[in-house]
Amino acid sequence: MKQWGALRPAALMRLPSPREQADLVWALEAACLEASSPGVHSPLLAIASNLLKWLYDADVLSEEGILAWHGGRANPAGRGFRDAVKALVEWLQEADDDDDEDDDEE
Q1: N or C: which end of the chain has fewer CB within 10 A?
Q2: pLDDT, tens digit (0-9, with 9 covering 90-100), for 7-16
Q3: What is the DSSP string of 8-50?
């Protein structure tokens, strides 16, 4: 993914709304499911968390967009994808909780 870093300014930009960002994550989830076969996980699952983190770091996806996907409709067949990105989602939720606590202190 490091080799894609040069593409960031020219080819990638943040999608305007958390809903559109969630749609992108749903599309990635669907691609992982499509690449899987019964009993065999897609190789995309191995990089799913890294891919979402890279899109987050590249400002294509925001915390709100990823959490909107996670809190939205769940595809029962997509459990493997959700499991693969669980640590990233938990990290974002903790960061969101910390932000809320900081706001309450002010």
Answers
A1: C
A2: 544 445 667 7
A3: HHHH----SSHHHHHHHHHHHHHHHHHH-BTTB--HHHHHHHH
By the 8 A CB rule, do 14 and 62 touch? yes
User: What span, in angstroms and rounded, lies between the C-alpha atoms of 20 and 83?
Assistant: 22
Q: Does the predicted TM-score (pTM) go above 0.85?
A: no
Q: Are 77 and 32 in contact (CB under 8 A)?
A: no
CA distance 48 to 57: 14
DSSP, res 6: G
Cβ 84 vs Cβ 42: under 8 Å: no
